[in-house]
């Protein structure tokens, strides 16, 4: 008498269905996490931190140099206020100001005030993070600082 042996296991169709369901769940989780937004938030945090460090160094320079701010950010490293000058985080979009390199350093029309700034991401839809020497603090602004706004900013 012939006996059929029963093989235990999953069929190919069952395995494909499980893999498809897992793929759909992974896609839903990836959309919910939104890694691009998390990367932008991380770079914005870096911008805020760097501008805060530069602002602190500007005030130290001002104190040590009898009430004068530096003519350029590079002077902060030459005067040992910073070991290295922070640069804009990499990976930002090309439309950001500045996209790469050093932070924007603006001197007021009168020459007495300074502003350090960078555009926050996503570029074009958010504002700028600006350290104003007139105010002694950084804050978000809707537009980039200019020589005229560095003198007339209200704190």
Structural class of the helix and strand makeup?
Answer: alpha+beta
Order of helices and strands: HHHEEEEH
Mean pLDDT: 88
Termini separation comes to 97 Å
Tally of domains: 1
Strand order, sheet with most strands: 1-2-3-4
Shape: elongated
Biggest sheet descriptor: 4 strands, antiparallel
Low-confidence residue ranges: none
Q: Which radius of gyration do the C-alpha atoms yield?
A: 27 Å
Give a count of the beta strands, DSSP E runs of length 2 or more.
4
Q: Roughly how much helix do the residues carry, as a percent range?
A: 40-55%
Separate helix tally: 4
Can you describe what's shown?
The chain has one domain (about 35-150). Helices cover about 40% and strands about 15% of the residues. The chain is built from 4 helices and 4 strands, in the order αααββββα.
Give short descriptive properties of this protein:
four-stranded antiparallel sheet, single chain, about 160 residues, alpha+beta, 4 helices
Give a summary of the structure in a few sentences.
The chain has 155 residues and is an alpha+beta fold.
Set out the fold topology.
Blueprint: H1 12-33, H2 35-64, H3 74-78, E1 104-107, E2 114-119, E3 128-132, E4 137-141, H4 147-152
Antiparallel strand pairs: 1-2, 2-3, 3-4
């Amino acid at each position: 008498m012939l006996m059929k042996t029963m093989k235990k296991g999953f069929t190919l169709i069952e395995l494909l269905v499980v893999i498809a369901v897992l793929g759909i769940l992974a896609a839903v989780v990836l959309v919910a996490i939104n890694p691009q937004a998390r990367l932008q938030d991380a770079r914005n945090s870096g911008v805020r931190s760097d501008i805060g460090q530069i602002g602190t160094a500007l005030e130290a320079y001002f104190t040590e140099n009898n009430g004068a701010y530096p003519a350029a950010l590079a002077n902060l490293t030459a005067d040992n206020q910073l070991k290295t000058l922070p640069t804009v985080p990499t990976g930002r979009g090309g439309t950001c100001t500045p996209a790469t390199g050093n932070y924007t350093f603006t001197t007021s029309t009168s020459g007495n005030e300074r502003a350090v700034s960078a555009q926050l991401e996503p570029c074009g839809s958010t504002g700028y993070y600006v350290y104003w020497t007139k105010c002694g603090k950084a804050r978000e602004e809707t537009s980039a600082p200019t020589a005229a706004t560095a003198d007339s900013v209200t704190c």
